[in-house]
Amino acid sequence: MNEFSFIIFLPQKTLKILNLSFYSDTAELNNRAFLYGDAVRVSFFVHQSRIILAEECYFFLMASMRKMRMAIPLSYTLEFFVELFTENVIEKGVSEGVINFHVYRNSQENLLSKREISFYFEVETPRNILEMQRVFEIDLIKEISVNANVLSGIHVHSPENIYAEVYAADNELDDVILLNPNKRIARAGIGNLLFLSGNTIKIPKQSEGAFVSPLMESFVTFVHQNKLAVIEEAELIAFESQKAEEIMIVSDEKGIFPVMKIRNKTFEKTRFTEMVSAWSQSFA
């Protein structure tokens, strides 16, 4: 196994945030992630000084790399990642946070599918990924759409996400609802959308352009197993966003956000907050 370099950035003390960045030693500025967006990203989660959902996140990483035809090193085992993050994140003092792990192909002369890979990860902290964050105001965007193919569910370079982020900021919004080419709801810019009406939570199907999300899968599995609501994967037209009683965004990278407002309609967050609280307690 190659040795690694570890870089710590300490921002202004008033922020009280510790940013950790970590490169494998083969990392280089002239890499395909920077030049071509040839990379995948998966988030791992630290909660109460331990890695949670490690197996689910690991298998998502392996699946994402296979979909992008990356050569997976034999050393990339679940144990390798648990040890890597324990030594370089938890033992550095991080008790709550999100590890955003990027894998990219190196610039070499052999076939793309045979090239070695490097990785980079950064840690955002402190934040309890299992708690509700601040409320969001969002809106529907129709200028662009997101694809709904086998690559749509993984986290790769996406100009649609960048455009959505800029559009939201320019219009004083927190995020936007993105549609697929069939004009149905795919996801938000930063994550997946959940719509609660009555006793049913509707979630856009992955075939509609939604992300694969270990965090969301854990939440909806808990809700289903504890009979807190009926989970329905659905094909949703844009009007569904106005019919819902509560809306929530689940982002592996950013966290969980209740939607407060879409245009002139406001939403509650009581029931989703209760569900998220019960789910969070199950990790204690």
Automatic annotation (TrEMBL):
Q: Which residues form a coiled coil?
A: none
Pfam families, per the entry: Aminotran_4
Keyword field contains Transmembrane helix: no
Extract the GO molecular function terms from the UniProt entry.
lyase activity
Among SUPFAM superfamilies, the record links this protein to: D-aminoacid aminotransferase-like PLP-dependent enzymes
The record ties this protein, via InterPro entries, to: Aminotrans_IV (IPR001544), Aminotransferase-like (IPR036038), BCAT-like_C (IPR043132), BCAT-like_N (IPR043131)
The lineage's top-level taxon is Bacteria
Q: Which UniProt keywords apply?
A: Lyase
| Protein name, UniProt field | Aminodeoxychorismate lyase
Record organism: Kaistella daneshvariae
